[in-house]
Specification:
The structure is a single chain. The protein has three helices and seven strands, in the order ααβββαββββ. The protein has a seven-stranded mixed beta sheet with strand order 1-2-3-4-5-6-7. The relative contact order is 0.19.
């Protein structure tokens, strides 16, 4: 279970994502706008951070959509359109130093939390799924 500080960092990132809203369906645009808004708040934010991962036994050089530092905690973020891709989870797991792993879905719905991530946010339904259950972010 994530610590209170991790939960607070995840919630701050999710609120920022909701401010961006569903005006952009392209995951790259959402990540870029979130990085810009995070930097305006004084947080660290990097698009396309390197994330090596293993696929079919081969080491790949991937990139996660967004890496943010919120209250001193590193939060890895993958943004997908309709559902969470297995590759997104694998890339987030490829960075062991992350305090929290978050997936954001711009157009889809969520009903459960997959293994390997701490939270999933659906921008369309404004629902956040954590190990503790569902939260509606308005």
């Amino acid at each position: 279970m994530p610590s209170t500080a991790q939960q607070d960092a995840i919630l701050k990132v999710c609120k920022l994502a909701m401010e961006i809203g569903d005006a952009y369906s392209c995951s790259d645009s959402v990540a870029q706008l979130m990085a810009y808004a995070a930097k305006a708040r004084g947080w660290g934010a990097w698009n396309q951070a390197a994330a090596p991962y293993s696929q079919n036994g081969k080491l790949r050089k991937g990139r996660i959509d967004l890496l943010m530092v919120v209250d001193g905690l590193a939060v890895g973020i993958e943004v997908d359109k309709f559902d969470i891709k297995a590759k997104s989870i694998t890339k987030l797991q490829g960075i062991p130093s992350l305090a929290a792993r978050l997936c954001i879905i711009t157009r889809g719905e969520i009903d459960s939390l997959p293994e390997g991530v701490d939270a999933v946010l659906s921008i369309r339904t404004q629902r956040l799924v954590t190990r503790e259950g569902f939260t509606v972010i308005a």
